[in-house]
Amino acid sequence: MQSANMLLKKIVRSSVLPFAAQHGMKKDLFPLSRTLSLSLCLKQDNSCSPSEKLDLDAWKKVMKSGLQQEVSETVSEHKELSSLAAAREILEMWRLAGRSVPENISEEQLKTFMECPSKSAKKKYLKYLHIKELYKKNDKRKMDEKRERRLEAQEQASEAAEAKRNSFLCVWANSMDRAYNWRVAQSMVFGQPLIFDMSYEKDMSIREVTNTVRQIVLSESCNRRSVDPFHIHFCNFEGDSLYHKEFVKHYREAWGKLLITVTDQCYTEVFPKDKLIYLTSDSPKVMKTFDHDKIYIVGSVVDRSIKTGLSLARAKRLGLETAALPLEKYLLWNTGAKNLTLDQMMRILLTLKDTGDWKKALEFVPKRKYCGFVSKPVHELKKTLNLMNTLKLGKRQEEVRKESAKNYSRKLMQK
């Protein structure tokens, strides 16, 4: 009997109590459970009081209410699913019609779309979702491209590492470096000096000094790989200057091993004045040939900071001879300044030193600065160029006159 009562209590708690709790009948249910537990004793013990009998009407109400709630929830779920399916069909039709509709939309976003009060609000919400989806796709595409670039860089790095590990290439590179260093070491004893004037730091900004040092590094590299290199001198070079800091950044440990001469003295104190020639584009004297017995000076100034007459004034104060490259003699120059970078000057001087050919040397001048090499006398070319400009100007004036006449006739017809 006790086991039957326990089983009946478990059934009541698992089935009846949740429905009774939803309808506020939890307090009245415990007497019912007690009545059910004692109903089995009525057959054996007739002395039980009539107040402990089962209330069947209350039991029926509880069971009916629970069944009705389950049916209503099922119906509401079916309605919601059907409305979501209809909304998805509408979105698919709009997408096929070419409207801004996202390709993937979640149930929450779909519910928000259905709750929009008007059609314009729905369109705006869909456009917002579409733009958001496009941004996500774009970010994903960028991440994929970045990943591909990183993989390509890793592959290139691995290939470069394999090439470096190749013993033949390593031996070749080491032998070439030794040959270059040997040539530069010989130039320090027997070579022609070339001076970089490092006294222009106060006349330049930090960015211009950085560009100057970068050009000098390229010049030194080009000189080291040449057949007959110059013996490079850095004159007026101070140890605590900005030049020194930038050179240390570029060369690092190799700065102290460079085969160049660095001094804080002026070039007039190291070399005789009659052998010095200051190369400047402001000089009235044009350089005709390369003199192997002279010592050429190049001002360490970038061509972006076009300071007219700065190097020429310094050379005149020191009483030095000056010279300019014959650019107009060999090149049909465009409008603009005739300043060149330091590495371009180094390549031109090295070519002149090796070959003495101006046409071959001036090939290192950027193509954008001139139209071509001079094949006729300069005065004839200037006449031809002026004639071409005059013809172009006259043709342009004729076109403007015809266009104004057309416009005037159109205005008369409109009136």
From TrEMBL:
One of its GO terms (biological process) is methylation. It comes from the Eukaryota. The keyword Methyltransferase applies. It is an enzyme of class 2 (transferase). One of its GO terms (molecular function) is tRNA (guanosine(9)-N1)-methyltransferase activity. It catalyses: an adenosine in mRNA + S-adenosyl-L-methionine = an N(1)-methyladenosine in mRNA + S-adenosyl-L-homocysteine + H(+); guanosine(9) in tRNA + S-adenosyl-L-methionine = N(1)-methylguanosine(9) in tRNA + S-adenosyl-L-homocysteine + H(+); adenosine(9) in tRNA + S-adenosyl-L-methionine = N(1)-methyladenosine(9) in tRNA + S-adenosyl-L-homocysteine + H(+). InterPro entries: MT_TRM10-typ, MT_TRM10-typ_sf, Trm10_C_MTase_dom, tRNA_m1G_MeTrfase_euk. Transmembrane segments: none annotated. GO terms for cellular component: mitochondrion; nucleoplasm. Its EC number is 2.1.1.218, 2.1.1.221. The keyword Transcription regulation does not apply. It is found in: Mitochondrion. Keywords: Coiled coil, Methyltransferase, Mitochondrion, S-adenosyl-L-methionine, Transferase, Transit peptide, tRNA processing. Gene3D superfamilies: 3.40.1280.30. Residues 136-163 form a coiled coil. Residues 180-372 form the SAM-dependent MTase TRM10-type domain. PROSITE patterns: SAM_MT_TRM10. This is tRNA methyltransferase 10 homolog C. The gene is Trmt10c.
